[in-house]
Amino acid sequence: MGKKKDFTINPQSLIDFLEALEDPRIDRRKKHALINILLIAIFAPICGAKTWTDIQDFGRSKEE
What we know:
By secondary structure, the protein is mainly α. It has helices at 11-19, 34-46, 52-61. It has 3 helices and no strands.
């Protein structure tokens, strides 16, 4: 069998990548930073969120 690849992600690389994305939203309609939305959308399912409501609840629980 082949070698098992070590799959690790440098958290700072992920943040740098996401921060480089252009935010297409209208400025006056932005309630939350795009980076926060994206990180919540990535991490909530990893932590067990199964629905958009779960993701919203996860985000609110981490607000502080």
